[in-house]
Amino acid sequence: MAASGEKEATPGRLPIGQLLGNLLRLFRAELARRGEGGDDLEGIRPAHLQVFGTIKAGGTRLTDLAAWSDISLSAMAELVDDLEQLDYVERRPDPSDGRAKLVCLTERGWDAMREGRRQIGQIEAEWAATMDSHQFDSLASDLQLLLDRLDPNVREGYVAPVPRLGKHEAA
To answer: Exposure string (b/e) for 17-34, b if CB count within 10 Å is 16 or more?
Structure first.
């Protein structure tokens, strides 16, 4: 029985942490599967999604990447080192603290983000097709509302990558 003020999980569903954790696992596995062997994502392994999923548009400190991904600092440093060698990220001085470094996307990193967003759109469309599309949109909106209320500043740093203009579209 739940203590006063606590709510038990609704019968017939997993607790929210298990729902979110398992959906994230399925999502990352599908995104990694789609990216395997793609020229735009050469060298990116599923573990690298820990970086791409948490890096902010203006760059992110290594310690924050590790904390937000819930992995050790040394494991995150290894992932960032891999991505740096592949030219997806670079370390730059943090303008707010000259002693610190920011991990920032390179142009190749932004290209990978654009391709990832394209693939994410496909995954979302396929997931939406497994249920009524209105239900999926409502679910996503409700999750966004919950996130906004629990962490109102989280959206600030996540900026969608601008589509790259093709040669024939450049001004």
So the answer is: eeeeeeeeeebeebbbeb
- Determine contact, residues 50/69, Cβ cutoff 8 Å: yes
pLDDT of residue 39 exceeding 60: yes
Q: How far apart are CA 157 and CA 81, in angstroms?
A: 22
> Is the predicted pLDDT of residue 160 greater than 80, yes or no?
no
Q: Whole-model pTM above 0.90? A: no
Distance CA 102, CA 94 (A): 5
**Residue in 85, 22, 76 with CA at minimum distance from that of residue 53:** 76
Taking alpha carbons only, the member of 166, 160, 149 closest to residue 120 is: 160
Output the CA–CA distances (angstroms, integers) from residue 126 to 12, 30, 81, 118, in the order listed: 24, 11, 33, 13
Q: What domains appear along the chain, each with residue ranges and CATH number?
A: 18-150 (1.10.10.10)
Residues 6+ apart with CB under 8 A from 118: none
Q: What share of the chain is helix, strand, coil (3-state, %, to 5)?
A: 55, 10, 35
**Dist. CA 149–CA 99, nearest whole Å:** 33
